Prior knowledge:
Its EC number is 4.1.2.48. Keywords: Lyase, Pyridoxal phosphate. The chain is of the alpha/beta class. 42% of the residues lie in helices and 16% in strands. The chain has a seven-stranded mixed sheet with strand order 2-8-7-6-5-3-4, with helices on both faces. The protein has a four-stranded antiparallel sheet with strand order 9-10-13-12. A two-stranded parallel ribbon has the order 1-11.
Amino acid sequence: MVTRHVDLRSDTVTKPTEAMRVAMANAEVDDDVLGADPTAYRLESEMAKLMGKEAALFVPSGTMANLISVMVHCDVRGSEVILGDNCHIHVYENGGISTIGGVHPRTVKNKTDGTMDIAEIEAAIRHPDGELYYPSTRLICLENTHANSGGRCISVEYTDKVGEIAKRHGLKLHIDGARIFNASIALGVPVHRLVQAADSVSVCLSKGLGAPVGSVIVGSKSFITKAKRLRKTLGGGMRQVGVLCAAALVALRENVKKLEDDHRKAKILADGLNQIKQLSVDMSSVETNMVYFNILDSSVISPEKICEVLEEHGVLAMPASAVSVRLVLHHQISESDINYALTCIKQAVDQITTGATTK
């Protein structure tokens, strides 16, 4: 019988803290669709100020936040967005920018650090002379941190360069900043500076910050006015949303400072995994709260099998590829949890390899 649970599938699995529950119970609310919810207003104002933008908008999810942002910038159907081939918008958001937004994705290969080659981005921009044949480029998207690259941070210098390209060609820049506060803490750069070059940013509240629900979009006042209309169109206009925003305000005020400890614990976990001879972690890739470990002999140990055995011990993880597993830290994972997970991972590896040898 499993007596301990350590959930490392994602930083989306946090439970609301007691302070969040109290804030939700006591939240001052009104109808946000009518623009009257005071707690939503406080959250949006605080986030806009933190990010150095004019205005902000609370939405139910990060996927909706990115979809709205892309659609505002690409308001003519058949427009084109340049984005990484391994980014969240392109891989994990159900093709919404195409199926709902009528926006064509033009992918550029993501490098191992999550960036795209600057020259390749510029080369992907369509020349206006070809508008009879090609989609019109209107937007460039970045992701920071870059999840599929292991939670790697995109530097302010790189972001500024991409912003310069966008301006030079009359394009907009959107940052999928689901974990932008992780990047800010890891890089030691204020979050407003990290997104200064962006015309819009989506910020997830329910990942590392630990709120139960929601994301916020930030940008100019005119951008947010258009975003609000699209939120309603997509079914994201909610009523007494201050109940959710109250928890998000607690997360924003109390949990940003905890991210540094998440990053520290991720390095402890990665170092421990490297002590297990059948596994390998590229320590240089562990910049924030994500750890990807590679299985050196995947013919014997598959990611699916190791996750299955771990679950029997109450440790939850996610296969990331045919040869790797993803583990994600958050503020409700303790060092004791990490030590327990490492013990279980070693036992799982031994169990699988011994079983394979004796068959």
